[in-house]
Amino acid sequence: MKKRPRSPGSGSWTPSALIAVTALAVGLCVGSLLVPPLLPTSLGSPATPTTLKISESSYPDERQVALELTRSSPAPLASPRGGTLTSYACSPGAEITSGTVLAALDERPIMVLGTSAPLWRTLVGGEQGEDVRGVQESLAALGYAIDVTGTFDWQTRVATEEFYKDRGVPSDDGVLDVETTIWMPNYAANIESCPATIGGFVAAAVPLATLHNEITSVRVAPIPKDLVPGARHLTVGETTLELGDAGTASPDNGDFTAFAAEPAVIEYLSSDSDLVLTGVLTLADPVRVLTVPASSIFGVGEAQCVSDGEDLYHVRIVASRLGSTLVEPNDPSQVPLHVLVDAPPGQQCE
């Protein structure tokens, strides 16, 4: 049987064909490496936003500040008469209150009475004046039944006699004798020193004790120059005082008794070193601010604006924080929901 000859290309590859096919395959592989793969839309780079939703917050403009204190001179509790000191209830640092028996001279007790006006005369009955009113207020504060009239009447004499008797002091039918009573400007105070000695002679008008000088004012020094306008509170520890326009607080602006009892204040007053007393200054009424990108603000000088792409909103720059700017809208009723991230080119803040 004769074999039929094979026609070219019917069952075999010529060398040129093999070379062409190999080159094509290599080209496809290389091309697939050079062409970047297509990513899903969700995995692609986000488009740069042109607007940004703003956030609102309350801004107290909190600052830590240094404080200076003004204090009164130490107040003496002067002996109303002379004599030998036979008993003495004085202890430095202790509190003394109105109605306390402080000492005895020649075994005659001497009491302390805190009144709003100095005790300068003996009151026997019928006298009128601020000293009488102060005595009546003090006796009423101690729990005695008395009307504050400014006249040393019969009711006041009865209350005075009871006051003396309760403290073991002889009474002359309700007469308030200034030789048995020391005037104190407050109902309570802390004793600073006790200069007398048991058994020693004490002359009239010589101090039996001195009281701590009181804090009369607290001042912020210096006042920060870039404060947000508005009434201010000053806080030290747990005590908050109202601050006046000059950066000063007085006893009318808060509880100075609580302020003086703050540990930081006590440490400051008792320190011999250059210790600095500090407090926290805040707005009494925090302002409403918007947080916007710094690039969204445009304007000249104090005229500053932001835009939402349609309207302009006049604002005042309050502070900068973490790459953003805090602004206060000039018109609190007109607040944008969002702002352009970049200020519109050529736009004027008018």
SSE inventory with pairings:
Blueprint lengths: L14 H20 L16 E3 L1 E5 L3 E9 L3 E4 L4 E6 L6 E3 L3 E5 L2 E7 L15 H12 L12 H13 L14 E4 L3 E6 L7 E2 L4 E5 L3 E6 L11 E5 L2 E5 L4 E2 L6 H5 L2 H8 L6 E7 L3 E7 L4 E3 L2 E5 L4 E10 L2 E6 L8 E3 L10
Parallel strand pairs: 8-9
Antiparallel strand pairs: 1-23, 2-18, 3-13, 3-17, 4-12, 5-7, 5-11, 6-10, 7-8, 10-12, 13-16, 14-15, 14-17, 18-22, 19-20, 20-21, 21-22
What does this structure look like?
There is one protein chain. The protein has 350 residues and is an alpha+beta fold. The protein has three domains: 63-72 and 214-283; 75-211, PGBD-like superfamily/PGBD (Muramoyl-pentapeptide Carboxypeptidase, domain 1); 286-340, no CATH class. Helices cover 17% and strands 34% of the residues. It contains five helices and 23 strands. The strands form five sheets. The protein has a six-stranded antiparallel beta sheet with strand order 2-18-22-21-20-19, with no helix packed on it. Strands 15-14-17-3-13-16 form a six-stranded antiparallel beta sheet. Strand 14 and strand 15 (239-243) form a beta hairpin. It is elongated. The model is unreliable at 1-11 and 28-35 (pLDDT under 50).
